[in-house]
Design the sequence.
């Protein structure tokens, strides 16, 4: 049972989903001046992956869209303490992306040039400087790395508290324990949201849901090519070699492993690209052991450490690792007054930016944060394949070819 208020029968906007994107989107809509904003959540705020994430926040994206979203989200987290009653706990830690072969080296230099053109403070670090700045890492392993000193991380449970308190202070009506059932439309426009507690009349709706967004889409009568997949995180025992001032953040793109400081140890995460999508909360010890060898090769001290906590969470992804931000598409065309919003596995990293863009689209049809003309559902075919090249700096999630049910 929850202590939620009764579901209003009318609203200026309804947001479906109480994760990072839904929570911050409802806040942005309220801040924009809407009188009655309602957020409906089937469980409770932060119930899903939002409270189980690793909290990595970087602007070192592999595409212009990723960089722009990352820059906005990073600055949003950095400025929360001055604007909100409770912040997400952003720590500016510095983030490296090392290279281990000539192809990665070339790609990194091209990527840095693109990122710098967009205003990101990022630079190339030679191998010896990387070793000096990462004393816990085995020396001589890399050819160098890209480095953004202002990238960092947040505390995911604290982030849930941050948007929950922001929603409460600004007067968003949060109704937990209430499931989304469908939309009411008339002449190609939304006129209401159907829930397990009744219907809310409204002309504006944002549909979120993270790894459950596919089910949200089906309830609305539309196939949304987003799904969920297992992601695993481990926190080691403490060790002096892993003190925060000795352990900048690192993303080993080749293996899909990242790490950051946590509780005087190291937090590291991984995803298995061979897995098919679906809800997965069980920890895969076999895959952990295989990836542990890679971590021990790069961070030797971890070979002698046990882990103090470990968990698995179902996180969302899209076939091209890019966000979905655009109107709901029915056979007759886009549904006026709707926006579908998904982070493609980057809920902490892009969440506030996607939330802001979704709110902007709902209110004005465009956003200064990023051009959304290629980010809508119309970029996917019936099988869930995207016409866009995938973001190359992403976790190794399954592809649509591996998961034909993705678009269903």
Sequence:
């Amino acid at each position: 049972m929850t202590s939620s208020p009764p579901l209003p029968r009318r609203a200026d906007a309804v947001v479906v989903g109480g994760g990072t994107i839904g929570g911050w989107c409802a806040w942005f809509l309220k801040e924009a001046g809407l009188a009655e904003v309602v957020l409906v959540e089937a469980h409770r705020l932060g119930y899903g992956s939002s409270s189980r994430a690793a909290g990595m926040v970087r602007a070192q994206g592999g595409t212009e869209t990723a960089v722009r979203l990352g820059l906005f989200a990073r600055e949003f987290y950095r400025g929360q303490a001055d604007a909100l009653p409770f912040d997400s706990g952003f720590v500016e830690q510095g983030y490296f992306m090392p290279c281990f072969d000539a192809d990665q080296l070339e790609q990194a230099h091209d990527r840095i040039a693109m990122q710098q053109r967009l205003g990101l403070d990022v630079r190339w670090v030679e191998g010896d400087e990387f070793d000096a700045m990462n004393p816990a890492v085995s020396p001589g392993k890399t050819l160098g790395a890209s480095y953004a000193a202002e990238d960092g991380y947040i505390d995911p449970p604290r982030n849930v508290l941050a948007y929950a308190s922001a929603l409460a202070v600004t007067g968003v009506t949060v109704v937990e324990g209430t499931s989304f059932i469908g939309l009411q439309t008339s002449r190609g426009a939304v006129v209401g949201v159907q829930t397990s507690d009744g219907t809310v009349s409204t002309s504006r709706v944002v549909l979120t849901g993270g790894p459950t967004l596919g089910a949200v889409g089906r309830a609305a009568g539309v196939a949304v090519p987003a799904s969920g997949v297992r992601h695993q995180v481990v926190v080691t025992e403490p060790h002096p070699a892993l003190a925060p001032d000795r352990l900048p953040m690192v993303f080993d793109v080749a293996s899909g492993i990242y790490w950051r400081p946590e509780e005087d140890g190291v937090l590291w995460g991984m995803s298995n690209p061979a897995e098919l999508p679906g809800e997965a909360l069980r920890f895969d010890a076999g895959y952990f052991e295989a990836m542990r060898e890679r971590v021990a090769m790069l961070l030797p001290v971890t070979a002698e450490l046990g882990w103090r906590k470990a968990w698995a969470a179902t996180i969302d992804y899209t076939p091209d690792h890019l966000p979905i931000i655009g109107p709901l598409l029915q056979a007759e065309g886009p549904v006026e007054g709707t926006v579908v919003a998904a982070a493609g596995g980057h809920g902490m990293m892009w969440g506030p930016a996607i939330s802001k863009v979704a709110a902007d689209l709902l209110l004005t049809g465009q956003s200064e944060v990023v051009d959304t003309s290629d980010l809508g559902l119309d970029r996917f075919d019936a099988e869930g394949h995207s016409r866009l090249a995938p973001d190359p700096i992403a976790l190794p999630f399954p592809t649509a070819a591996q998961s034909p049910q993705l678009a269903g």
In short: The helical segments are 20-31, 64-83, 102-117, 127-133, 156-170, 213-219, 285-298, 347-364.
